[in-house]
Fold these 2 entries.
Entry 1:
Amino acid sequence: MTHEFAHPDEADGVHPIRHQVVFDFGTSHSGFARATRDFPDSLTDKLSAGAGSSSSPLKKLNIDYYIKYKTSWPGGQEPYAKTRTALLYDLQGRLVAWGNEAHHKYLMMHRGKQKNHIYIDRFKLFLDDSRKHEDPAMNQLKTLGKDIDDVIADFLGPLASQVGEYCQFLDTEDWNPYEVRWCLTVPAMWSDAAKAKMRQAMQKAGLIRSAKTTTRLEFCSEPLAGLLFETFSAQSRSVIKADDPVVVVDMGGGTVDLTVMCGSGSGFKELVQGLGASCGSTMLDSAFLKMFRDVIGSKDYDNVIKKSPQLENKLRNQWERRKKAFTGAESEFRVAIQVPSAMYNVCQHDDGVVPGTGGAELEDGELYLSRDTMVMLYEPIVDQIHGLVLSMLNACQSKGINVAHILCVGGFSQSKYLVGELRHRLMEKDAAKIVVSLNGGAAVLLGAPIYACRPELLLKQVARVSYGAQVSVPYRPERHGLRESLGDRLFQAPDGLRVKGVFSPVIRKGQALTPGIVATKKYRAESFTDTIIRASWFVSKLESPIFTDTSDCKCIGVLEVQVTPSQDYANRDTVEVTISMSPSGLMFHAKSLSTNKPVDCRIEFHD
C-alpha cells in the first residue's frame, strides 16, 4: 500500500484554501471531519447572535449539517466515526494494510505468514513523555530505519487519502492536500516535542510543505474541542451558559486531561492551570493483560505470545467487549474470557479461584471475571482520575471560581462504572454537576472544526510550566548566591564576572496568556566572530527557577538564530526574538537590530 501526493515547489500562499479538515488522531481509533465552506460564516452569525447574553444558554448549531465525517471505513463491520489506529507492515517495512483492515488481516493470518509481518497499534503512546511506552513492533521498525514520526506518517497518509475520496464524493472536484487547512487534535498535556513530531509526520505524509514554516496546520487541545461541541452543537444535551465555569475532563485512550474554561464575550478563557495524567483506558487494558499474564505464568505467557503474537490482540478484543459491559450495578457480574489452548495447557493454576485476581475463576478453558475482579482492575485508574478532579476543584475554590459543570468527554467517559464511581466519591454538590457527553470520543472530533474555523475563540490559556532560555548574565550575589557556591557557573568575561546556566524566564507557570506574541527577548553574540547564536530552552514545574542544571528543569530544545559577524567585541550583533504561544506550541521569529530585517531562526525540540 502506498500513499503519494505531489510536492509542489510553490509556497503555501500559491494554493488557495478549499477545505478545512480535522484529524482526530487517537490512541486506539482515529477519524477525520470536514467543515463545509459556509460553516465559518454561519458560526460567526451564531456567535454574534449569542454575544452579551451571559445568563442564557449559547446559541446552538446543527453540527451535522455543517461538519461531515466518515462512518464507513475499509474493514469496518459497523458504522463508526473512526477507524483503528493500526498498521501492518511486511518485514521490509512496506505498508501492507492500514486501520481496521490491518487489524483484521493480522488476526486472520496463519501463524507462518504472520511471522513475516509487523503489526503495530497504540503508537500514539510513544508521544507521551510522561510515561515510557514499550512495543517490540516499534523496536523492529526502528531496525528498518523508521522513527515514530515515520510510523505516524504511514498512518496519516492513507487517512488523508480517505479524506480525498470523501471530499471528491461530496464536491466532485479535484483533491489537493496542499489546498487544505489542517487541524490536529492533541492532548493539552502534550509537550512541544510531541507536537513537533506530529508536524514532521504531516510533512512526511505529504500533507504540508514544511513542518517549520507552514501556516496550514493548527493544533486544537482535546478538552477545548469537546467543550466547543457540547456548547454549540444542537446534538448536545449540555446546557452551558456563556459565563459558566466548566471543568472539562477529557478521558481518552492514553491520557486524561482536565481544563477549566469559561465563556467571555467573543470566546473562552482558561481560568486555572490545567492538569493531566497517563491514566486513560489503555492503562486499564494493560492492567487486565498483566493480571492475565500472571494467571498463566509470566514466562509461559511470554513464550506463547512470542510464537503467536496475534493471540494478545484476540485477548484484547475479548476484554474490550467485557469492559464495555461492566457497569458495577450487577452484584453477580460474571463474564468469561476464553483462554487460548496454548496458554491453558501451560497455565500454572488449576481450575478454580485464582489468588490475587479478585475472585476470577478458571473453568474448562475460560477465565471468569467477577465484579470484584473488575473493581480491582479499575481502582488505581479511578483513584487517579478522582484525584485529578479533586485537585482541579480545589484549585478553582482557591480562586473563588464556582464551577457550574464537570463535563466528561472522550471515549473513556462512556464507561458507566468510571463515571458512576466519580459521582459516588465526589461530594453531593459536585457529583450533581457531572455531565457526560452522549457523543463520547466523537465530541472531540466534531468540536475541533469549530476551533479550526475560529481559532480566535480561545482568548486565554494558562501556562502549565515555565519556559525559559539558558543564558549567562552579570553576577549578582543577591540573586545568584555567594561566589564559592557557584563553582564553575562563575566565569570572567571581558565585561566583568558573569554567571552561566541561568534560567531566563519567558513564560511563567500559571501565567494567563493571550494567544499570539507573549514575549520578546534580545540576544547578543558571545563573540564578534559568531554567525549563529545558540540558546538552550528549558521548561520547569517551578514558577521561577534560578539555574537550568537543577532537577526541576528539563532542556526541551536549542534555539538557533543567525547573526552577522562584526569588527570588534563592542559592536557584536544583537537580534530580537519574538515568542508566540498557541495550542500549536511555541513559535519563534527573529530580526537583526542592526539591519531591522528578519533573520533565520529555528528550534529543534528534544524528546
Entry 2:
Amino acid sequence: MAAANTLVPAAATINLRESRDQHLRRDQVVRATVAEGGLEKAVLQLGGRKFLVETETPLMTGQKLSLQIVENSEGVELRLLTFSLSDRVRQVLHLAGQSFDLLPLLEELAAPNHPLAGALSPAARDALQGALLFFSGQTEGTEGRFLKSLVRVLGLDLEQRLQQDPAEAPLANLKGAVLELLDRVQGQDNPTADRIRHLHQLIEATQIFRARLNEDGFLLLPLPFPFLDYGYLLAERHPRGNGDTPRSGGMLSLYLQLSSIGALNINMLFDQRGLTLRIRTESRQSMAFLEGYRDELEQRLQPWRLAGLNFSSDATAPQQHLVNLLSGGRSTVFDTRV
C-alpha cells in the first residue's frame, strides 16, 4: 500500500445518516466497484448505491477499489487506498490479449450524422479523425517515426506529456478523445457506449502493462491494426546471452495472431555480426509456407547484414507470452542456441 487519495462526493453526498444506514464506520475499509470510470470524475458502486465522486486518480470502469471511510463536518469522505503496480496488473490481467478493434468504432464516430459528432470538442474530433487515418493506413513515415507516432496517436504517453507540459491539449490523441466520449455516454446503455468504455479499459490496461514490463527492461508497443487479430512489439533493452550476461546490441520481437496462419513469433537480434532472425509458427504447415519465401527474405534483409535466418514451429500464443511476462515469469525471447 503506497498512498491514499481522497475521493470527494460530487453530485451525491454521503451524509452521516446515510453512512449509518449502510453500516459505514469511521476508518472502516470497504470495497467498491467503478461503475463509470473517468480522469477527474467517476461513478462508484458502493453496496446498493451509486455515487458520483471527484478524484485525483484516474479510475477505470470495472476496477475494484479499497476505500477508507473518513468523517468530517460535512459528511463522509472516501479515501482511496492505492496499491502497487503489480496489484494494478492483477486487476486488469484479464484484458491481456483482447483486440482493440479500433477501425469499426472510429469509422462509426466519423460519420457526420452520428449523434456524438456534434457533442465533441474540435480537439476530440480531430484526434478521432487522425486515429482513423493512421490505423487505416493513410499516413506515411519511416519505421522509427511510425512507432513513435503510434504511441502518440493512442495516447499511451498522455499522462507523461501532461506532467511535462500541463498546458498541452489533453485531447490531441485517442485516449484524450475517449475520455471526453466517456462523459458524453455516461449512463447510456447501448453498443457504442459499451465499445467506448471497453476501448478506454484496453488503453489504460496497456499503459499499466507497459509500466510493469518497463521494470524488467522491456518496451511494449501494441499493434492494433485491422490485418492482425492481435499483436504487439516487444523490445528488450538489455538482451541476455549465454551465462545470463548482458549482450551488446538489441532485440526486437513481434508476437502476432493472424487468422490465416495462427500465432507467429518473429525474434530479431541485432549485434556486431548483424541481424539474426528467427521465425516461429504454431504449425509445421505454416512454417513450410513461410519457409518457401526464404530466398526472397534473405535478399531483402541483406542491407541489415543478415547473419542467420531460422524457422521453427514452436510459436507461443501472444496472449500467453504477455501474461507470462506480466506475472513475473521472465522467459527468454530468443533461443541463443540457434
